[in-house]
Write a structure and sequence with these properties.
Oligomer: single chain
Largest sheet: 10 strands, antiparallel
CATH superfamily of the domain at 545-862: Glycosidases
CATH topology of the domain at 545-862: TIM Barrel
CATH architecture of the domain at 545-862: Alpha-Beta Barrel
Number of helices: 18
Distance between the termini: 68 Å
Shape: elongated
CATH class of the domain at 545-862: Alpha Beta
Structural class: alpha+beta
Amino acid sequence: MNSMIRRTVLVAMAVVLCICLRMSYTAYAADPKGYEVMAESERLALLVNKSTTEIAVRDKLTGEIWYSNPPSAKQEKYQLNIVYYDPEDKRKRYDSYKDSIQHGQFEIEPIENGVAITYTLGLVWKEDDFIPLSISQERFQSMILDKLDKSDQSFILKQYDLVQLSRLPEPDTSGTLGPDKLWGKYELVPLSSTMNTTQKNNLVYLMLDRMVDLRDDVDARADVKEEYMINLVDNPTYVLKSRITPWDKVDMVNLFKSIGYLPEDVGVDQEAYGYPAPERNIETFDITIEYTLEDDCLIVTVPMDRVRYPKDVVAQMAYVKGAESVFQGQVGRGNIYEHFEQQVGGNLVTFPLYSVDVLPFFGAADKGTQGYIFVPDGSGALIDISTLSDRSYLKRVFGRDYVIPQQTSSTDIVQYDSSQGIHLPVFGLKKNDLAFFAVIESGAAFASVSGRVAGNANTYSSVSSEYTLMPFSVVTLATTARSERGGDKSINIYAERLPEEDIRIRYAFLDRDSADYVGMARYYQQYLVERGILQRRTTEGDPPLFLDILGAIYTRRPIMGVPLNVPVALTTFDEARQIVDELMAAGVKDIVVKYSGWLKGGIDHDFASRAMTEDVLGGLKGLTRLRDYLSERGVELYPSVYLQLLPTLNTSSVNLRREAAKVPTGQVAETHILSPRRLEILVSNFLKDYLGYGIPGVALDDLGYIVVSDYQPGNMTDRGQAAQIVESQLKRLREEAGLDLMTTLTNVYALPYAKYMVHMSLEATQYRSVAESVPFMQMVVRGYNTYAGTAINVSDNIRKLILRSIETGAHPQFRWFYREPSIIKDTTFADLYSCHYQYWLSEAVDIYLELKEFLSKVKDQRIVDHKRLAADVYQTVYENGVSVIVNYRSDPFEFDGVAIDGASYRVIEGGQSGAH
C-alpha cells in the first residue's frame, strides 16, 4: 500500500514538474511581435518578419532569441550592404533596408528547412513612372476608374483634364505650331470642364514641353512633329495636370500600385501619345539570401547564380543626363554621348559589384554589454566591447590577394598589412553569458572579417563577414575623356565576372560554460574533426627542435671587372651535418631540419620547374650524403621550395607572360606570383626531379598560406577557384606523391595535409582595437598537428617568445647558417646577421631542454582550457590535467597559493607545481 502511495505521489510530482517546465518554456519562448515561424529543427526555430525581412533564431533550449538586426535599431535595419562603382568609377553604396525594403522591392519564398529572400537594391521605378501623362478615356475607365471606389475615382479625376484635338474648319497652311493652331490644323478642346484661352494655351505648352523633356529627338517646342500627337485627334484623352502636390502624387502611386496599374502599363499609354515609355532604372542589383536550419545551426547562403549586377546595359537618358554635371559648361547632349563613347564604351555601361557585407548586425550587442568580439587574427584576438571606443577591425581571410593592389574597403579604419594573418575563416561574439560563433564554409577566399565596437559612431558592437566580389586595379593614362574635363587620369579596371563559389556561413549558438573563445575553439575543433580536416596523431620520441638551415644566397660581385650575381654558400650540405652533430652531442636528439636555399638560385631560387641543387652547396651528391646521414640518426629532412612566389633575382628562369598571374588589365602583376592555372604543371615538373632524390618530406614555403587570383582577360581564375587549386595540389603532394609536408603559416585548407606547421602565429597583431591575444589556433589544432612559432633567434624579445611558446604549446624553432656572418655584409640578406649558429648553439640547447621538459608532459595533448588570471597572466590547461601558468609581468604573481616569478611560468600536475 505504501509503495502504491509513493508511486502515485512520484507520478503526480512528475506531472506537476512537466507542467511547470512547459509553463516556463512558454513564458520565455513567445515569438517576438511581427515574426512568423518559417522553419524548425530539434533545437532552433527560424522566424521572419515579412514586412522588414529581419530574421530571428529562437533557441528552444535556452529561450534566447538571436536577431539579424537589433530590435530597437534605428539605422541598423539592413541585412545586406553593397559597395559598387558607376561608369565614372565613383564609389556608391546600397543597403537592403533603404534601397530595397522601403521600396517594397523584395520577395520571400519558402525553401526546404528555411526561407529565401531576394532583394532588388536600387529604386527600379520612380514615382513618376507609375503615373501616365496621357491616357485614352477608354483605357482610363477600364484600367483605372473601374477598379477604384467612388472616393478614389473622384480623387484621381481631379488630377487630369479630359481633352482632345479637333480639326479646324479652315486649316492654316502655314503649318505653324502655336497654342491656338497646332500645325495650323488643330485646336485643343476641353471635354470635362471649361477652360479659358490662357488655360488652354498653358495645357498645350505643357504637352509640348513634356515632349522636349522626354524625347531624344526633340530639343525645342518647334521640333515637335504632328505625328507625335496624332492620337489626340478626335480621341478623348486624360492629360495629367501640371501641378500635383507631393502628397497627392504619393497617394496616386499607391492607388495605381494597388490596382495593378504598373509602369509597363504606363508605357503602353504614353507611347500611344508620342511619349517614351518609362525606363527601368539600370542601376539596380538583385541578391538572394537563403536562411536554413541545420541541426543546431543557422546556415546563411548567398547563391552567386542569383546575384545580378548591371553589366553591359544601355545607358538610358536618365543616367546620361545625370552625367551633365561633370562636363564643366559643355551641356550639349552630343558632348554627353561622345563622353560615353570615349569613356565607358559607347552606349553600354557596367556597374561592377565590388563587395557585399552579409548580416553586419547579426547578434549585435548594446553599448556597455559585457563581452568581446572574437577575430582569428594571428593566434586569435579579443576586441573588448564593454567600453565605448568606436574602434573598427577589418582584415582579409587568408591574407592579401597579392595580384590586386590594396584597396580601401567599406569601413573607414582598415587594418590590412601585418605579419599576423587570418588563417581560419571564423569569427564570433560573446555578450554576457551567451555567444555565437560563425564559420565561413564557402567564399572564405574572398572574405574579410569586419568588427565594430559601439561608441559615438557605432550604436552597437558587431562582427560579420564582408566579401570582395569584383576587385580592380587602377590604370593611369596620359589623357582620358575624364581628365580633359578636369577629372582624374586614372581609371579602374575590374574583374570581368563575379566569383563562382557561393557565400555560405554557419552560425552556431553557445551558452553557459561554452559561451567564450574556449567554447568557440572546442566547437570548431569538433567541426573540423567531423569533416576529416583534423585527424588525431601520435608522435614518437621527444618533442622536436625545428631547425631552419640556410643554404645559399646570390650576391652581386665583380667578376673580371663585371658585376655579376654569384652564388655564395652560407651552409653547405656537409656543414649542415656538422650543425646537427653538435646539437645532438649537446643533448638534442629529436631534430626536424628544414633546408632553405638548396635549389639552384639559393634562397630566392630559380623557377621550380626543375629541382636542381645548388652546386656551391655540394650538388646532388652532397644532398644525398646529408639525406642518408640524417636518416640514420632519425632526423627528418625537409628541403624547402617556393611553388607560387616567382624568383625576383633570376627572372630569366621563368616566362612571366606565360606563368605569372595577371591583373585585370591583362598585365603581369607587380608582385610576380604564379598563376593558379599553372600550378598543377609546375608541381608535376618539380616532382619529376624531386621524387628521385628519395627524400620523404618537403617544406612548402608558400603553398600553405598564399592564395592569389588570376585576372587574365577571358580566362579568369577567381580567388575561390585558386584556393581549390592550391588545396588539390597539397592533397596530391601528400597522397599521390606520398610526401610528408611542412607548411608555413598554414591556412585551414592545408591542415589535413601538413605534418608540421612552422612560423605559426603565437599572438595577434597588436592593433589598438585588440584587447588581448588568445591561443585560439592552438586550441583548435593541438593534438592533431605539430607546430612551431617563429625562429627564436630572430625575435626582438626572446624571453617573451619562449613564454608564448609555453602558453600556446608550440615547439622551438631556430634559423641558422654555418659560415661567418661577415659573408652577408653589404648584401640584401644582411638582416640575417643573428643567424650564425655558433652565436646560438649553447643558448639554443638550454632553451630547447627547458621547453622539452614541459612539452614532454603535454605531448600530443589537446588544450582544453585557457583563461586570463590577471593582466598579462594566463593559464593553459591540457586534457591530461597538466596546466601551466605563464606570467609575462616583470613582478611575481600568486595564484591559489602558487607563486610565479616575473617573466616566468609554473607547471602544475597532480597537485604539484614546478617553477621556471
